């Protein structure tokens, strides 16, 4: 047994979260699942909860279920998500839509609050949806885009933001954890810098929620969005979440006026009158079935605790770096992620020109990372489901292929 395998097994034995792995569905053909930052494994309890809901709540109560609680799920589940993972007091988070739709809605709401300013600041390496949505809004509203060029192996910095924002900046939009490198931005400092210039901030939390501590209220963030199918294990296409700071709720309005955001949805009368508070961020009928897996995931998150999750996340990425240093970095592989644990999220990225084809071969051998063009292999490590031994097996298989 090599020393690193012995270390992996010792880390697994000492892991306070080790028993959580057995509470997720296994994939019999998978040796190492290293893509939990794209799609988390399903909890076993999710299937039981959905079956019970279909037979009893939906099947038994039928349409009566709307009046018995379903209508409030976007806010009730949003409050719980805010408390457990986002550092948000009640009344500021809703679960609805997709990340793209909520990003559009909240960006438009933020711009409404800065009508005399004509610029959006964003970075060149943000996730494509963020860039595309903002490009569309700029074209729609006749706004300027100020692009910050970021290093794909790092991410946005406060110093870059300070140089970019000015008196015409209405909104800045960045990812808290960069989707490519895993770099964690200094959200508190960047938010302060944007506010000092009179701008508002919208954070994308897709690669943070459930893996990296977030403290939206303490950071005085204005708006935020994120998905729930990565570290929150709520399933493919599960609904997104949006955060609207209480200070903006009475004087901003998102542009997709639907009946669920109306002050009295069942009046069905003429004219739109927005609901009070964060409920006005809703548009259409809540995706009740799609929220069920998120309830299960939040149960697990509460039981494990964000502090323990973050601690294991850092230990996993530390071990991934040790394996990469020992086996890979002398084989034409480059690290494209921060080594500083304060700036490292839940995944690391390795680069080599031929990784696109190697990813395919890894998948045939049961090792599942993902690839990000042009040459990045992301090693995504989900604290509740990834073991150190699994990580060792995955990177050992990659090393064998390179040899």
From TrEMBL:
Instruction: Look up the domain of life of the source.
Output: Bacteria
Subunit composition? Homodimer.
User: Which pathway or pathways does this protein act in?
Assistant: Amino-acid degradation; L-kynurenine degradation; L-alanine and anthranilate from L-kynurenine: step 1/1; Cofactor biosynthesis; NAD(+) biosynthesis; quinolinate from L-kynurenine: step 2/3
The identity of this protein, by name, is Kynureninase
Its biological purpose: Catalyzes the cleavage of L-kynurenine (L-Kyn) and L-3-hydroxykynurenine (L-3OHKyn) into anthranilic acid (AA) and 3-hydroxyanthranilic acid (3-OHAA), respectively.
Q: Which family does it belong to?
A: Belongs to the kynureninase family.
Instruction: Name any one GO molecular function.
Output: kynureninase activity
């Amino acid at each position: 047994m090599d020393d690193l395998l012995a270390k992996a097994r010792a880390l697994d034995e000492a892991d306070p979260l080790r028993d959580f792995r057995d509470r997720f569905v296994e994939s019999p053909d998978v040796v190492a699942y290293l893509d939990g930052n794209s799609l988390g494994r399903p909890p076993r309890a999710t299937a039981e909860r959905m079956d019970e809901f279909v037979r009893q709540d939906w099947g038994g109560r039928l349409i009566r279920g709307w009046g018995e609680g379903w209508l409030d799920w976007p806010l009730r589940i949003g409050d719980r998500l805010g408390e457990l993972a986002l550092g948000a007091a009640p009344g500021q988070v809703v679960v609805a839509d997709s990340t793209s739709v909520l990003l559009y809605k909240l960006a438009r709401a933020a711009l409404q609050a800065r009508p005399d300013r004509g610029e959006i600041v964003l970075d060149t390496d943000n996730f494509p949806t963020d860039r595309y949505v903002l490009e569309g809004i700029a074209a729609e509203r006749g706004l300027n885009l100020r692009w910050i060029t970021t290093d794909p192996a790092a991410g946005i910095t406060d110093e870059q933001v300070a140089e970019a924002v000015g008196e015409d900046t209405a909104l800045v939009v960045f990812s808290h954890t960069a989707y490519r490198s895993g770099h964690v931005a200094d959200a508190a400092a960047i938010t302060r810098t944007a506010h000092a210039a009179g701008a508002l901030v919208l954070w994308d939390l897709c690669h943070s929620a459930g893996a990296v501590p977030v403290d939206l209220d303490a950071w005085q963030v204005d708006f935020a969005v994120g998905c729930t199918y990565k570290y929150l294990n709520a399933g493919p296409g599960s609904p997104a979440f949006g955060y609207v700071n209480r200070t903006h709720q009475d004087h901003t309005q998102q542009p997709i006026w639907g009946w669920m955001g109306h002050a009295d949805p069942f009046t069905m009368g003429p004219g739109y009158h927005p609901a009070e508070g964060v409920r006005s961020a809703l548009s259409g009928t809540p995706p009740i079935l799609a929220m069920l897996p998120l309830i299960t995931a939040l149960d697990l998150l509460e039981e494990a605790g964000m502090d323990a999750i973050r601690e294991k996340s850092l230990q996993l990425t530390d071990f991934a770096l040790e394996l990469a240093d020992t086996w890979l970095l002398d084989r034409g592989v480059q690290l494209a992620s921060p080594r500083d644990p304060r700036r490292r999220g839940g995944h690391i990225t390795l680069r080599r020109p031929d990784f696109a084809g190697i990813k395919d071969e890894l998948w045939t051998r049961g090792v599942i990372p993902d690839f990000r063009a042009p040459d990045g292999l992301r090693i995504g490590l989900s604290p509740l489901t990834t073991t150190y031994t699994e990580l060792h097996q995955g990177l050992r298989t990659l090393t064998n292929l390179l040899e």
